[in-house]
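Retro notes - structure team

What went well: the batch runner handled both jobs without manual restarts.
What didn't: labels got mixed up in the shared folder, which is why I'm recording both outputs here explicitly, each with its sequence directly above its tokens.

Job 1
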Amino acid sequence: MKQLIAMAIAAILLSSCGTYKQLPSTGYAPNSDTSITQSLFSDRSSTISEEGIQKILDGHYKLPQQLRVAIVKLDNPQSRNRDWWNDEAYLKNQQSYLDLFADKFKSSPRVTKTSIIPDLLVSKTPSFTNIREAAVRMQADIVVVYAISSDIYARYKLFTKPDIKAFATTQLIVLDVRTGLVPFSTIVTKDVLSQKKKEEVDDAETRNRIQQEAVLLTINDIGEKIKTFLDTP
């Protein structure tokens, strides 16, 4: 009897072993290296190769000690949509901002030359390639690209002068002409609240003054950041 029971158990075990199926391998090993070191996404519009991205991110960059600086101003959409060419105050302000940026860089002992890239060398909507090539033609080591946007708000009060508030946002980048890298960038926004002064002829003069004050605040702030950047070894 005991022998019959043992034989039955053996038969069951053998049949279960015969129906066992091995699961397919997933190809994953617990100790395999799964680190991702480059992009796995296909981007045909990219202007930088995967090899170039790796070199840029793993490489060491240092700004030249002696710098020839070229400066270019980009028009913001607000100015392109309005006829500013007949506005004398606007044109004078834009020139003063450009000169002020040039002075900020001239104050650094590292800067040996500053120049302004004329509009003739860049398109109305320039690309980095366009700007870089224009800077090459002017033999500049770095090109400073900036854009300024500003606007006015007025809050009227009964029996008193209205409060006029202006805000300005200035964006600036430094583009290394040799490498195409951007070692410095900043965005600064400032606002000014004021009222019309007795000596001002009309509201337009007041608005222009307040708006200019807001822009100058952003430029002065950026000037301090530029000084720190250039003074860093």
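Job 2
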Amino acid sequence: MAQLKSSFKNMVLVLSGIALFAATTLASVYEFTKAPIEASKVAKQQHAIKEVLPAFDHLSRPLKIADGNENMVVYKAFDATNQFVGAAVETSSNNGFAGKIVIMVGFDKSGNIVNYSVLEQKETPGLGTRMVEWFKTNKGKQSIIGKNPATTNLTVSKDGGDIDAITASTISSRAFLFTVHNAYKAFTSNKNEVVASINDSIKSNSIQ
């Protein structure tokens, strides 16, 4: 077989072929993994909702809220008699030390923080990553559990607030507490909404 002559045209053809093959392969891998990744994300989200809320029977349809550059989702929770018991709010901040932080925060009907779950973060291992447990650990002024943002200054002590920052991770701590503050804003702006009908809190949306 005759060997291709080395030329600019041949080089372009070969490189174009390689690029096309790589793009096709990556697209195939993406399509193959997209569904499992999405299913895992939904499962993690539903587990977080259960983890952060007080006992409940069913949820309302998700309510999406835009506040500047931040997007939030509110899940209102009801008991078996359709009485409001609290809400879970998914919110985020792009101001983490390593980028985006996404958390789920649960409030009881009075606005007290029941619990939180970190859904996404890329903070420094051993430092910012400690947010997963730091702010629910009953030590010093770390924990935000049981606190109400209406009466507690949920900013770090260094900024005059009531919460101890993660050791050597002030930026991560500020970003985390910012998301909690936004979650509370979303909660208070929607907790008194009148449910239009019983269909807005469908038992089929209940997380078992």
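One thing worth noting from job 2: Residues 194-204 have pLDDT under 50 and may be disordered.
We'll revisit the folder naming next retro.
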